[in-house]
Amino acid sequence: MHLPAWLLLAPLWLAFLVALVPIIWLLRNRNHPPGRCPACGYDLRGNLSGRCPECGTPAPPDQS
Ligand SMILES: [Zn+2]
């Protein structure tokens, strides 16, 4: 019974891919949508101070 090396490593690759999915998902969710603080995601709609009240990060004022 001679299995090729890549086939023996297949479960490892599968585990790697399964672990990769939530990592990519987390990284994608770090990009907050417009109208939210780029640092903490606080909802800045209607905020005209140009600064996040939650964490103090300078943020562009509401443009909608
Ligand atoms: Zn913030």
Describe it.
The chain contains 2 helices and no strands. The protein has a domain at 38-64. With 64 residues, it is mostly helical. Helix content is 38%, strand content 0%. The chain binds zinc ion. Zinc ion (ZN) is lined by residues 37, 39-40, 42, 52, 54-55, 57.
**Would you tell me the overall average pLDDT?**
84
Number of DSSP helical runs: 2
| Biggest sheet overview | none
Bound molecules: zinc ion
Radius of gyration: 21 Å
* Estimated share of beta-strand residues: under 5%
Low-confidence regions: none
Instruction: State the end-to-end distance.
Output: 66 Å
Structural class: mainly alpha
Shape: rod-shaped
The percentage helix is: 25-40%
Note the topology:
Blueprint (H helix, E strand, L loop, with lengths): L4 H4 L1 H20 L35
Bound molecules: zinc ion.
Zinc ion binds next to loops.
Question: What attributes characterize this protein structure?
Answer:
64 residues; mainly alpha; binds zinc ion
Can you give me a brief rundown of this structure?
By secondary structure, the chain is mainly α.
